[in-house]
Specification:
The protein is of the alpha/beta class. The strands form 2 sheets. The protein has a 6-stranded mixed β-sheet with strand order 6-7-8-3-9-10. Strands 2-1-4-5 form a 4-stranded antiparallel β-sheet, with helices on one face. The radius of gyration is 35 Å and the shape is elongated. The two termini are 68 Å apart.
């Protein structure tokens, strides 16, 4: 983990080096204060006092403090910018990696928790990246330098102080593990509350529709209380840590005062040396306490970085070895003995065999949970079959690159996802390099161009989060325009009209009929009226295909399809 963390410093080696030099200089400037103080006190107590030395010492200190001010500005500004750039690089890598993770990862991980790792956790990492080297390297050097200087003032008094240092580190080590565990739990609680917030805010319209704000408040309060308790534990551990280490450092000052007083009384130390020692001991203690106090930041940063690495360790989607791009796809689809269990061991599909000729419309009907959507998800390899093979134009989909396979497939689903952007950006998502004319033509074919042109900003109209400013039918037509622009040879319609009213469904169906022309189309439908004219219909139940044929053939068969059809139309239409 350390090697990986250090690799993020490589692009910023110059700034890092300058930051370390500036920090080192600032630390060394601090050493000059007791040295000048000692000289000035000696001058005060000497018989031949020279005011020029006193004035010169003051001017020298002022000049050094001006230099330190400028260096501190550089450290605070450039050092933090370096940390932010490292944070941005990690966030970029995480985002790129998230784009490559399979569907199954998002089935098992909540959006709010992922966002917490990308924001809160990486912020702590950037703080560690900036302050970590300063606290470890520079304070260590300062401790050594100040110890050497104190030893030159009075080695015996320095040794007495140094003998107290182990007590400081013993207490720090004893409390460190407790603090690390507390902060880890605090991070997990933060992720939980962010996940709850994301879910509640996204579903606010459902909450209002069902008047369930009190229910959401209770659910939120559970996470909120857990967050408070976890932070309480973290702060308790932090309080114990700081109060204990502060007590030890205060004891240091008492030891210096008492031991130095005895030394002064016994003429073992000069008044100037004693004064300098009292001033200088803080040069030794301050970086020591900074180094120990840094453990809190270290725990935060390491915990955040380890959570970052957890996501980066997730196995991304990969092309199979030897996979190649496919072009000029015609759309002949064949399933051969396909089973799927989503890795759970419970088969969702059981030995599916299908042969869908290019340009044909193939419909899947049956009860919910029977496996219809799973069949659709296996074609673009959103999930992987447990056994069996799927072929397109006689080529096994496993031997195709994922990008070329998915570029050949267009999907229109019931739950349309639109981005919080303009209408133009959402349509162009189908093919970002399309021309303005191609985009408008796609909108016309989806029967939404006229509606767009009646809007104040036309194609530049912002539609809000998930297209909240549009009706269900308008959102569906935008998604159809997006697929028109993509112009794939294979089309999957997963209950694309089931959430619409009858009038809107007719309008959408016209656009879908236009979209299906010349493409191999797989339709998942509950409304059987929309698939009566399909070239072939399959009934899927409990992971198996129980019936296949045209509408008329299945009606004549008098099986499950006929019963479904009769239930929907109450026997009025035959």
């Amino acid at each position: 983990m350390l090697k990986k963390f250090l690799s993020y410093y490589k692009p910023h080696r110059l700034i890092f080096t300058l930051d370390m030099l500036a920090s080192f200089t600032v630390s060394m400037v601090g050493i000059f204060y007791p040295i000048v103080t000692r000289s000035m006190v000696n001058e005060f107590t000497s018989d031949g006092r020279d005011h020029k030395i006193i004035i010169g010492g003051g001017i020298l200190l002022l000049a050094l403090y001006i230099i330190r001010m400028l260096l501190n500005y550089f450290i605070q500004y450039e050092g933090h910018v370096m940390g932010v750039k490292m944070q941005a690089q990690m966030r970029r890598e995480m985002f790129d990696h998230l784009q490559k993770l399979p569907y199954s990862y998002y089935d098992n991980n909540e959006t709010g928790k992922i966002m917490t790792r990308m924001t809160n956790d990486l912020f702590e990492v950037s703080e560690l990246a900036h302050h970590g080297p300063e606290n470890v390297i520079i304070t260590s050097i300062t401790v050594v330098a100040s110890f050497v200087y104190l030893a030159t003032v009075n080695w015996l008094l320095t040794l007495i102080i140094f003998l107290c240092v182990p007590f400081l580190f013993v207490i720090a080590l004893l409390l460190r593990t407790k603090m690390r565990n507390a902060f880890k739990r605090s991070r997990e609680a933060t992720a939980e509350i962010n996940a709850a917030l994301e879910s509640s805010i996204s579903g606010i319209r459902v909450t209002k529709a069902f008047c369930n704000s009190e229910t959401e408040k209770k659910k939120f309060e559970i996470g909120n209380i857990d967050f408070v308790e976890s932070r309480r534990d973290a702060y308790r551990s932090m309080g114990q840590f700081h109060s204990s280490t502060s007590f030890i450092t205060n004891v240091f000052n008492a030891v210096v005062l008492v031991a130095g007083g005895f030394f002064l009384f016994a003429d073992k130390i000069a008044i100037a040396d004693y004064s300098a020692f009292i001033v200088s001991v803080n040069l030794f203690l301050t970086p020591m306490t900074t180094l120990i106090g840094f453990m809190e930041q270290y725990q935060n940063g390491v915990t955040g970085f380890s959570r970052f690495l957890e996501i980066m360790a997730e196995e991304p989607e990969r092309d199979t070895e030897g996979a190649h791009d496919v072009t000029d796809v015609q759309g002949h689809i064949r399933f051969s003995g396909v089973t799927c269990d989503y890795g759970t061991g419970r088969e969702v599909l059981k030995g599916i065999d299908l042969d869908i000729e290019k340009g044909k419309t193939f419909a899947l009907v049956g009860p919910s949970g029977g496996g219809k959507t799973t069949i659709c998800h296996l074609i673009p390899r959103f999930y992987h079959q447990s056994s069996g093979d799927i072929f397109i134009d006689g080529i096994n989909t496993k031997s195709m690159t994922l990008n070329s396979l998915r570029n050949s497939i267009g999907i229109v689903q019931q739950d349309v996802f639109l981005f919080n952007a303009s209408i133009r950006e959402n349509i162009l998502y189908g093919r970002p390099d399309a021309t303005e004319e191609e985009m408008i033509e796609a909108a016309k074919r989806a029967n939404i161009h006229d509606y767009i042109m009646n809007m104040e900003k036309g194609y530049d109209t912002e539609i809000g989060e998930r297209g909240v400013r549009l009706s269900g039918g308008q959102k569906q037509r935008l998604s159809i325009a997006r697929v028109f622009l993509k112009n794939p040879p294979i089309l999957i319609l997963d209950e694309a009209t089931s959430a619409l009213d009858n009038t809107t469904e007719i309008l959408i169906q016209e656009a879908l009929d236009e979209l299906c022309k010349g493409r191999t189309t797989i339709v998942v439908a509950h409304r059987l009226s929309t698939i009566k004219n399909a070239d072939e219909i399959a009934v899927v139940s409990d992971g198996c295909i129980t019936e296949r044929g045209t509408h008329d053939q299945l009606i004549a068969l008098g099986g499950a399809y006929e019963k479904l059809y009769s239930q929907q139309f109450r026997g009025l239409v035959k």
